[in-house]
Amino acid sequence: MSSFAKLWAEIAPIGRAGSGGYLRFALTEPELTLRDWFRAQASTRDMTVTEDGNGNLFAWRGEPWAPGTVLTGSHFDSVPHGGGYDGPLGIVSAFLAIDKTPHDRKIGIAAFVEEEGGRFGVPCLGSRLLTGAMDPEKAAALTDRDGISFGEALGKQPKGQIAELANIKAVVELHIEQGIALQTPVGVASAIWPHGRWRMDFQGVGDHAGTTRMTDRRDPMLTFAFTVLAANKEARLSGAHATVGRVQVEPNATNAIPSLVRGWLDARAADTATLDKLVDEVVRKATERAGRDGTTLAVTPESVTAEVAFDVPLAERLSRVLGDAPILPTGAGHDAGVLSGHVPTAMLFVRNPTGVSHSPAEHASDADCEAGVEALATVLTDLS
Ligand code: HGY
Ligand code: MN
Ligand code: MN
Ligand code: MN
Question: What's the CA-to-centroid distance between 330 and ligand 3, angstroms?
Fold first, then answer.
């Protein structure tokens, strides 16, 4: 069994659901177990483990935050029933890669908290706090579906911006590709598409499903359904990506016309103009339809992220040391995207043969994951 397969087998069962997907929400039992695994891996390598006051975990070879350190790593948390590679692959690969780098190199490994935003609703929460892009008070007040706040889950007020980030020489996050463009085992990221989430509240009038005449209804589900179709059509027309997910219906009964339907539009596009046009069009059409349905629509932009263009010389340097590895964009958000505004940052992608991600079917071959470890070791050695 390869060293990758052996280490992978240690974490594979943690947080796996009957669906074969993972329920690894930030600071819940499975993710806390993965943090214990992280600490154990660090201690077998005599690495110092620190937590930055925001829930981000770090393992350091040498002094924590020592000037000139190269930082790698990713996240443990998953979307509901997500795949096992999205996030953890970057952390498992980091521990295996550091074993292949000269011992005198200053390298750190990070496990960022709440990257998916699957529990508290803000993606890359940990890296946003670390870089000062998220207000600690606001973060502490974010609540999950059970009303537990991030501050309670963390057990303290998040610290916010960490000045020592300025000491970090470079960041390299390894991640499974969440698409099907990569035809070689390893690639290098050029950019992250602009993307964001828009909360859409469709307000109507709750009423009896059986006795209310169709002409008297103000059914928000109708406006919602129209909006889902409009988003899909706009995306197809403009080559963008649009999804409406995480739908909440109140009251959620078979025999009651809902009073409120809440859903999140996740929209992404290769450029900001296309993204803006898509969102504007969808909101315009949905608002028009609401007028016809006698409902109202309130749209709240959340965690809208501008395009991330990774450091070009760094990406080209990585591609060169990896024997001309392809350089390609991604539509997925990453902690590396948040950090790239503060430290020279790069990403390595490991081939995803089906391109499927955020699904139990997400998979990468052991051979490609091993190639990813070798590539990460090469890059960490080169940069440090
Ligand atoms: O949703 C994303 O873009 C990433 O997988 N967090
Ligand atoms: Mn993800
Ligand atoms: Mn991820
Ligand atoms: Mn990420």
Answer: 11
pLDDT tens for residues 148-187? 999 999 999 999 999 999 999 999 999 999 999 999 999 9
* Both tokens assigned to 124: 């890359």
Do residues 124 and 112 lie in contact, with contact meaning Cβ atoms separated by under 8 Å?
yes
Q: Among the atoms of ligand 1, which is closest to the Cα of residue 195?
A: 3
Instruction: List beta partners, residue 200.
Output: 263, 299
- Which residues 6+ apart lie within 8 Å of 322 measured at CB? 186, 188, 375, 378, 379
Complex ipTM, two decimals? 0.90
Q: What pTM was computed for the model?
A: 0.94
Please choose from 116, 246, 303 the residue to mutate so as to test ligand 1's pocket, defined by most ligand atoms within 8 A of CB: 116
Within 8 A by CB and 6+ apart from 229, the residues are none
Strands 70-75 and 207-208, by their bridges, are unpaired
**Cα 252 to ligand 4 centre (Å):** 33
Query: 123: Cβ below 6 Å to ligand 1?
Result: yes
- Asked whether 82 lines ligand 1 (CB < 6 A), one says no
pLDDT digits over 56-87, tens only? 999 999 899 999 999 999 999 999 999 999 99
Closest alpha carbon to 256 in 207, 295, 326, 215: 207
Question: CA dist 121 to 144, 147, 307, 308, 376, Å?
Answer: 8, 12, 20, 21, 31
Report pLDDT digits (tens) over 331-364: 999 999 999 999 999 999 999 999 999 999 999 9
Say yes or no: CB of residue 115 within 6 Å of ligand 1.
Answer: yes
Q: Prior bond to 64 cis, omega within 30? A: no
Q: How far is the C-alpha of 7 from the C-alpha of 96, rounded, in Å? A: 8
